[in-house]
Structures are given as structure tokens and as C-alpha cells.
TrEMBL record:
Signal peptide: none annotated. Residues 20-85 form the RNA polymerase sigma-70 region domain. Belongs to the sigma-70 factor family. ECF subfamily. One of its GO terms (molecular function) is sigma factor activity. Keywords: DNA-binding, Sigma factor, Transcription, Transcription regulation. PANTHER family: ECF RNA POLYMERASE SIGMA FACTOR SIGC, RNA POLYMERASE ECF-TYPE SIGMA FACTO. InterPro entries: RNA_pol_sigma-70-like, RNA_pol_sigma-70_dom, RNA_pol_sigma70_ECF_CS, RNA_pol_sigma70_r2, RNA_pol_sigma70_r4_t2, RNA_pol_sigma_r2, RNA_pol_sigma_r3/r4-like, WH-like_DNA-bd_sf. It comes from Streptomyces sedi. PROSITE patterns: SIGMA70_ECF. This is RNA polymerase sigma factor. One of its GO terms (biological process) is response to stress.
Length: 181
């Protein structure tokens, strides 16, 4: 693989094709894992290969071509996350789950914790659960949630506080071995 990268550095088009074909599947697996976005990983692979193509003339072979390429892939993924975080969310308020997944990529609680949280939130009155999800999970400002809900900001704050207290009570009961009410 490194031999192909060095030959590609010298302008051998066939070596470029062989090198990229040899690493493409590894890149896709790696970027899918790192990004947590199987659909967006393909775009990251393309961007990584473009960056690698531009950087090939400077590849000196001091490390393996695979290591060199994976470092480019990592930087590409980090750049994508930075770019996405700098952009305002595009999802509508009604699509809160997509917003949460996009905003929390890389530091999402485990699957089990998410299932437990969803179960606990399902027990809350819908207005409290919605206010909690939008402000505490999706990270929306209270004022935006109030506007979307058609109620005063104080009402949203109250709903979130009551939801938080109920969730804490339910978790405490569950930890003590008692069934939540």
C-alpha cells in the first residue's frame, strides 16, 4: 500500500487508483465508526480521498500510507463536526430526535440510558416531556420553546423544572428497587 502511495506521489495514475481502491473500505468503516453517521460517512470518504490526492506530492513515506491516510480521515471528520456545530440546526422543532442525534454525536449516552430516559419521559404529561426534550436534550433556548409552544417563557421553565423533579424522583425510586409511580 505504501509502495502505491509513493508511486502515486510521482504521478503514476494507476498507482493512485490501486492505492485508493485498497483503502476505500477501511476508510468507510473507520469514518462510519468515528462519525456515527453511516450515510454521511460516504461523503467523508470522498472528502478524505480528495484531501489525500492533493497531499500526495508531500507524502514522504515516513509512516505507512494507511496511517497517513487515517490521520487525514480523522482531521476530515473533525472538520465536519466543527462545521456542523457552527451551523444553526436545520431540523424543525417537531423533528426533535434528529436534532438531538445531530447535536450530541460523539457524546451520546449509551443506548440503554436513552431507552430508560424515553420510558421515563413517556410517563410525564406531554407538555412537560416536550419542554424537557427541547430544552434539555435538544438544547433549544427557553424563549424559542415558549414561542413554538405558544406559552410564556415562565411556563416553559416551570414545565422543565417539574419534569426534572419527576424524573429525579422516578430514578431515585428505581435505584431503591421500588417501581416508579
Amino acid at each position: 500500500m505504501t509502495r502505491w502511495a509513493l508511486a502515486a506521489r510521482g504521478g503514476d495514475r494507476r498507482a493512485v487508483e490501486l492505492f485508493f481502491a485498497a483503502v476505500r473500505d477501511d476508510l468507510l468503516r473507520y469514518l462510519t465508526r468515528v462519525s456515527g453517521d453511516p450515510q454521511g460517512a460516504e461523503d467523508l470518504v470522498q472528502e478524505t480521498l480528495l484531501r489525500a490526492l492533493r497531499a500526495l506530492p508531500s507524502f514522504e513515506g515516513r509512516s505507512s500510507a494507511r496511517t497517513w491516510l487515517l490521520s487525514i480521515a480523522r482531521r476530515t471528520a473533525v472538520d465536519r463536526v466543527r462545521y456542523e456545530r457552527s451551523r444553526p440546526p436545520l431540523a424543525a422543532t417537531a423533528d426533535w430526535l434528529t436534532t438531538v442525534e445531530r447535536e450530541q454525536r460523539g457524546h451520546v449516552p449509551g443506548f440503554e440510558e436513552r431507552v430508560v430516559l424515553d420510558e421515563l419521559l413517556a410517563r410525564l404529561p406531554s407538555d412537560r416531556a416536550r419542554a424537557f426534550r427541547l430544552t434539555q436534550i435538544a438544547g433549544m433556548p427557553y424563549a424559542e420553546v415558549a414561542e413554538a409552544s405558544g406559552c410564556p417563557v415562565g411556563t416553559v421553565r416551570s414545565r422543565v423544572a417539574r419534569a426534572r423533579q419527576t424524573l429525579l424522583t422516578q430514578l431515585t425510586l428505581a435505584e431503591d428497587g421500588r417501581a416508579p409511580e
